[in-house]
Amino acid sequence: MRPPILNPLFAPITSLPGVGPKQDKLFRYLLDRSETPRIVDLLLHLPSNVIDRRAQPKIRDATPGTVVTLKVTVDRHRPAPPGRSRAPYTIYASDETGTVMLTYFRPQGGYLDKLLPVGEVRYVSGTAQMFDGMLQMVHPERVVDEEGFAKLSGIDPVYPLTEGLAIGSMRRAMAQALTKLPQLPEWIGPEVVRRCSFPGFATALHHLHQPDEITDILPSGPFWSRLAYDELLANQLALALVRAQLRRPAGTRHAGDGHLRRKIIDALPYALTSSQQEAVRAIAEDLGKPLRMLRLLQGDVGSGKTVVALLAAAAVAEEGRQSALMAPTEILARQHIATIAPLAERAGLRVAILTGRDKGKDRRDILEQLANGEIDLLVGTHALIQDEVIFKSLALAIVDEQHRFGVRERLLLTDKGEAVDMLVLSATPIPRTLVMTYFGDMDISELREKPAGRQPIDTRVVPVSRLGEIIEALGRALKAGKRVYWICPLVEESDNGLGTDMGLIDATQRFESLQKTFGDVVGLVHGKMKPKEKDAAMARFAAGETQLLVATTVVEVGVDVPEATIMVIENAERFGLSQLHQLRGRVGRGREASTCILLYREPAGETATARLRVIRETTDGFRIAEEDLRLRGEGDVLGTRQSGLPGFRIARPEIHGSLVAQARDEALRILQDDPKLAGERSEALRCLLYLFERDEAIPLIGAG
Ligand code: ADP
Ligand code: MG
């Protein structure tokens, strides 16, 4: 139940004077709500700027294009000539230095006579313009008399608006909304309030909507930050409540005695790096805990995540339970099974693969074995979340390259078992603050070390005008027996939907021209090929029958070919940072030193240049992810811009990032002290959850 104290804030905005059905529609659109927004929704719509009306020049000194407030005497009215209603209604007003034209279009009859009576002194405020050599103000935003002027703050907020919604209506509605603010209890703990010097919730709203100073509305300022913290705290509290709920039925454990894991480790042709060992240990510990695992395993391409995932699956199989490993593409799924199957076999772990390509009897057999518990680990694509895929007892869901999947897919997969543990593999390290913001207190394992013997990659940024030189150098490299990837970009989706085809044309043309130069050692693989052809092309390259493989990114060049030591990326300026990093990770996998050549078309834009510089300077995926965040914003890093993760209205990771950890800590402390949210502060915290729409978590703690 919503605390009754909030009722005034949850009244529809149409209950405010002056907000009618027409405004309702506009506000719904602006605030992105399917129903009439509530007063709280309006109050949390924060200004994007301010207009400073404190400039009060004389008419002669007013600068065109700026907002000014003029003290004038009204001289005369010149209404639009009869029958020409589209002509302006002009009012002439003056001070001792000159005259200003106040221009109105289609004013209501009598309105201007009242607003600007001839002979009276008025303060008019708006944007000054020059028209025919005379100062003009079209529809002054404010016209007040001496008394009204005394009440003006001098600074007015400006809001994001939508067509048809005037700034004046917005300000009036906001002023009304502010009067509905009840005296709310403080939900932030006193130490945090002190440490961060947070103003109160109501104070923050008042300062943001009725600023005294321009700095009052800065997102980094105290008022906005206070609300951002509120939003983050509500979110973290909700995530923590959900998480606290994810307890296993008593007595179930998802990790066994280690016998399968030992067999796999003994069968490995290499020793695990210490960060792999640490990740395996952390996962096993999670699996043994009474809480469900929610762990992110981050590590660059080639850092060895697959074997860690396999060992997790083995731990689960030791208890007679099943695991699923879902990869975003067919090729990646097949690569996983290729790595996993030989190791699994030696340990007696039963693995299988299921993708959209498996049909008919094979598919039926796999589904049957799965339902009977005869498969320990099922690797696959999206096909894994289909309804017909039924596990006997799924205990662990492993999701590779998680940012490609939406939250929905992850939930669908975990729904196939009870209290299923979740391990997310990511080759694009997600900055800590973002992980926390979106997933809450997810545990993280990082594979920072590269497996032993890996060579650094020499990355060069080269304009396409030097293509000739590059091709010559490649000729020498091919003669020396090197293996080369040549990547052509998939043109970003264009309006005509030709994106894929254009990438295809690029790749095909490049293939033909390279084949002319180098002959049969050149291969081609692209997304429009039949799966069998793709596999065959990849296999020929892996076996060294072809030495130069032209590929579009559609195919992800996912196959592990350690002999490949050169990569050319054409039109590198069109790729995102993370994508470049991913692609480059396909070389530098063997013992030989590798080179990556980023060909770009001149002139590359500013952001593209910055991206290429970052990728040349570092191979640290963590740094690259951070730069990506800086250059592109968080939506792209997570790949969620369209898929719509729970939105944040106020907090902005790039500005309020440091508040995320504090909110997380405070949320955990709150639940530690008061797991049922029944104590003194609970009423305040419930208010917080409702205000920021995180109240779905409330039923989880009982009626209280
Ligand atoms: P990721 O999935 O993180 O990109 P993979 O798991 O595919 O990386 O591993 C890349 C390659 O490194 C594989 O061929 C794998 O066998 C190998 N590998 C994994 N761990 C080690 C290690 N500790 N030492 C040497 N090679 C390793
Ligand atoms: Mg991988």
From TrEMBL:
Keywords: ATP-binding, DNA damage, DNA repair, DNA-binding, Helicase, Hydrolase, Nucleotide-binding. Residues 470-630 form the Helicase C-terminal domain. It holds the Pfam family RecG_wedge. It comes from the Bacteria. GO terms for molecular function: ATP binding; DNA binding; DNA helicase activity; hydrolase activity. InterPro entries: DEAD/DEAH_box_helicase_dom (IPR011545), Helicase_ATP-bd (IPR014001), Helicase_C-like (IPR001650), NA-bd_OB-fold (IPR012340), P-loop_NTPase (IPR027417), RecG/Mfd (IPR047112), RecG_dom3_C (IPR045562), RecG_wedge (IPR033454). One of its GO terms (biological process) is DNA repair. Residues 286-447 form the Helicase ATP-binding domain. The keyword Ion transport does not apply. This is Probable DNA 3'-5' helicase RecG. It comes from Afipia carboxidovorans (strain ATCC 49405 / DSM 1227 / KCTC 32145 / OM5) (Oligotropha carboxidovorans). The gene is recG.
